[in-house]
Write a structure and sequence with these properties.
By secondary structure, the chain is of the alpha+beta class. It has one domain: 2-Layer Sandwich (Gyrase A, domain 2), CATH 3.30.1360.20. It contains three helices and four strands; from the N terminus they run αββαββα. The N and C termini lie far apart (30 Å).
Length: 94
């Protein structure tokens, strides 16, 4: 199981993914698209990334808005895995 990151490590990692917010022990990012179809296409892209990493975000779709939430449930908070997936998602978005 991945190790939990301490507050200092989390602060350092957050600087690498400025589009994400910290909400307790979760990383959160909301994106808005032109419509539902584009939002679903994005979710499908996220699914491919998540499968590659073996680490899956919680995903909420509300028409053209997608909210992603990352945490390592087994560890009870944030680990390197969460930041790796967040960074890969950001990289895929461009």
């Amino acid at each position: 199981m991945p190790e939990l990151l301490d507050k200092e490590d989390i602060k350092k990692q957050l600087k690498k993914i400025p589009e994400w917010d910290l909400d307790g022990s979760k990383l959160i990012r909301t994106l808005e698209f032109d419509g539902f179809e584009e939002a679903v296409d994005f979710v499908n892209d996220v699914a491919e990334i998540a499968e590659k990493f073996g680490h899956h975000p919680d995903i909420d779709i509300r028409y053209n808005k997608v909210t992603l939430s990352l945490t390592t449930h087994d560890a009870g908070g944030l680990t390197e895995d969460d930041f790796s997936v967040a960074g890969a998602i950001d990289h895929a978005i461009g």
